[in-house]
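Onboarding guide, step 5: your first structure request.
Type a short instruction followed by the sequence, for example:

Predict the 3D structure of this protein.
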Amino acid sequence: MTEQPAPHGPTTTLPPQSANGTSAQLPPSPPKSGPTHTRTSGLRTSRIAGAAGALVMAAAGTVRITQLRQMVRRDRRNPPTS
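The system replies with structure tokens like these:
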């Protein structure tokens, strides 16, 4: 048998091929676990923060307007006695 030249690039540690051309199946590799790191640009982060802030302010404004309308309705039904 002749030696095969070493492959270029990264090498792996696979078992040698058997004489009849088949090799045993490799066991499945365990799933990778651990923290996932993502990179977010400053522009994207500021847009997300701005959108979240706008939603919070819209919700707070809606609640306050509802409260004021309830107060006005209540005062119309029961006028103050003087």
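Each response can be followed by summary notes, for example: The two ends are 114 Å apart (CA to CA).
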